[in-house]
Every structure is written in C-alpha cells, then in structure tokens.
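Hi there,

I know you've been waiting on this one. I reran it after we fixed the sequence typo, so this is the corrected version. Both the input and the resulting structure follow.
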Amino acid sequence: MTGKHAKESNQNYTFNNNCVDPINRSVNIPLSQPCNSAEQLYFEDLTYTPGSYLITVSNNTVSCSLIVIVESFNGQTTERTVLPNASIGFLEEDVQGISIRCEGDSEAVCTGNLSVSKYFRFCVEEVLDEDNCLDSPWLKVGSSEDLLKFVESLKKHL
C-alpha cells in the first residue's frame, strides 16, 4: 500500500503507521481498611485520557469480601465482589476512579492488593480516516505538535 494511510502487515498483526504503539502505565496499591462497609477511594485517573484498564484485585482477608467500585468518565459505575482469599482481574474502559468497600466481619480489617494498568495510544488527527484508529478508544490529537505538547504535560502528572 502507498499513501498517507498505509498499513504494514506482518503475519497476523497489522500496524497502523499513524498511531504510536500502546503506552502502559501501572500502579500497585496495598489495600488495608476496616471491614465496616465504608467506601474508600484508592485510585483516581487525573489525566483525562481515554484508555483500557486492566484491574487486578486480591483479597487476603478470611472473613470479609472486597467490593470493587469502578467509576468511568461517562458516569457509569460497576461493582465486582472479591471473595475472601480470592483474586479477580478484569478490563474496563475510561476509568475515572476505583474505590473499595469491605463487607463481612465488622471486627476484621480487609487487606489485599489493587493493581491498575492503563493502556493508551496517541493518533494524529490530521492523518486519521475511517481506515485507522478513529473508531478506537485511543486519544486523538490535532497535530504532531499537539501530541508532543500533550506528552510533555502527561509526563508532569506521572
């Protein structure tokens, strides 16, 4: 293929020349809070960039369940339960915040771990069309110069 929207193929993979490879940012957060049904915020994304999130939660407590509350930028809230001595992993889009609520033995303390990995990529809008990343959840910027400014701004927040 030729032209400004050329794609390269390599076995089962297609590479879009107009978008950067996905970028990953991860954080591991130890969990510790009373098992009293109170909600506690553990993660908040202040970058306002769309992306896909891999969320893994482990519950090391024997007498409490962890309730994982995921809030998206679109206002949608999703709850998932992690049973005692168990772990779960799941994907979410455009996460704004992650809170934990512990339910069970009110004398116990919930402990565990929260791991959040955000995957996002940048596409330059001046070269986008229906053949590439317009329909994906990736951040789109107006020009290469805007992309560089945004990356510098993002570095300050990480």
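Quick highlight: The first strand starts at residue 7 and ends at 10.

Best,
R. S.
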